[in-house]
Amino acid sequence: ILEKRAFIFTSEHERLLRGAVRRFRHHLEPRDLIDDLVDVAQKLTGADRAAVYLREPGQETFQLHMMHRQTLSPDLDARALRASSLFEKALSEKSSLFSPDIQGDRRFKNIAICRHIGPRAVLITPMRGTRDIVGVLYLDIRTGNHEMMAGNASFIQELVDEAALSLEVSTLYQDLDDSFMSMVRALGTTVDAKDPHTHGHAARVAEYALQIGREMGLRAEDLRDLEIGAYLHDIGKIGIAGVILKSRDRLTEEEMEAIRHHPEIGTRILSPIRKLSKVALAIRQHHERFDGKGYPDQLKGDEIMLIARIIAVADALDAMTTVRPYQTPMTLSQAVAVITGNAGTQFDPHIAAIVNQLFQRGQLNLA
To answer: Terminal CA-to-CA distance of the chain, rounded, Å?
Structure first.
């Protein structure tokens, strides 16, 4: 019976380990990966508390990234860990080190600080990346049996190594994504430069759109698409004659018709980029109206993508409150009144209400 129990116990641990490794490969946000790592590590060891220290880029120092189930200040725990030679030994040997009783362990130099923390057993595991240590996982048990922690130390090292490799991938992805977003912003600025009346327009529309999107509780990936769409909503104007865009006179109907083609042009520019297929469609729809009287497809209501409806409002806010050759700029209060006054016709009534709420709270503003 005891042997059968041990087998079931081990199998459950292996299931946790393998499941975590599979999930690690899909985490693109370092924070999500670290949260997952800590959760599984505590289940595998019975640890009361956990802390993750990540190496600062290009340096030999480690910064506390997160602490789970803490009862004391992070600074105190960080000092205690750094004061121990066990930490340095784990780094130099590049392998897990376990102490069943730190009160009597000489590898912990600063016993006074260790007594403040109060753990009985400690497991310190370096996160071994492809080239170097990228971080350290700290686990401790304050009371209770430490046999599970001691017995599963090798599993924890395997788990942490997988997390380290996935962390390197997610960091690389983040760097690439940051570069991509920098290019998106630069392209939006380039489009603005073609029209002297819209300097800074793309950035302002993006800021308004993100304020609205966050207030609506959009997911991170939708906020990202919203930001890209806001920056590039006028990219189709690249295909519009400069003489029309720069005109200070009222445009003729023929010229207005040319302007109305810019959402379709923008979609054609972006549609070959598979990653931006959703954004390309939103750009096509950002001049549709809630009542179906917009262009180019006369969509109405929920037929229009949510991010396109948000961009439409943000675009109108900035257009009404900036200097244009055909108008005197409105105050933000006046522009919000126009948005709410056209709720249900030109604009989504829910988004219009969100804009009014943000304005009333003094949160609808540009940095």
So the answer is: 67
Q: What is the pLDDT of residues 244-301, one digit of tens each?
A: 777 777 788 888 888 899 999 999 999 998 889 999 999 999 999 999 999 999 999 9
Categorize the per-residue pLDDT at 27 as very low, low, confident or very high, splitting at 50, 70 and 90: confident
Greater model confidence, 109 or 168: 168
Where does residue 164 rank: exposed (0-12), middle (13-18), buried (19+ CB within 10 A)?
buried
Q: What are the pLDDT digits (tens) for 79-131?
A: 555 555 667 777 778 888 888 877 777 666 554 545 555 667 888 888 898 88
Six-digit token string for 59: 């340096």
**C-alpha atoms less than 13 angstroms from C-alpha of 348 in its C-beta half-sphere:** 25
Beta-ladder partners of 324: 327
The residues, ordered by sequence, that sit 6+ positions from 149 with a Cβ below 8 Å of its Cβ are 45, 46, 47, 98, 121, 123, 139, 141
Structural Rg of the chain based on CA atoms: 28
Cα gap 41→20, rounded to integer Å: 10
> For 135, which DSSP code?
E
62 in helix, strand or coil? strand
Q: How far is CA 109 from CA 119, 139, 231, 349, in A?
A: 15, 18, 55, 64
109 belongs to the catalytic site:
no
With CA atoms as reference, report the closest residue to 69 among 140, 159, 122, 163. 140
- DSSP of 248-289, one letter per residue? -SPPPHHHHHHHTTHHHHHHHHHTT-GGGHHHHHHHHHTT--
Strand, helix or coil for residue 44? helix
How high is the mean pLDDT of the chain?
A: 83
- Residue-level length of the chain: 367
- Please compute the mean of the pLDDT values over residues 187-193 and round it to a whole number: 84
CA distances to 207, 295, 315 from 360, rounded to whole Å, are 18, 31, 20
Q: Which of 4, 109, 194, 237 is catalytic?
A: 237
Residue 64's pLDDT band, with cuts at 50, 70 and 90, is low
- Contact between residue 87 and residue 125 where contact means Cβ atoms under 8 Å apart: no
Nearest-angstrom CA–CA distance, 141 and 144: 7
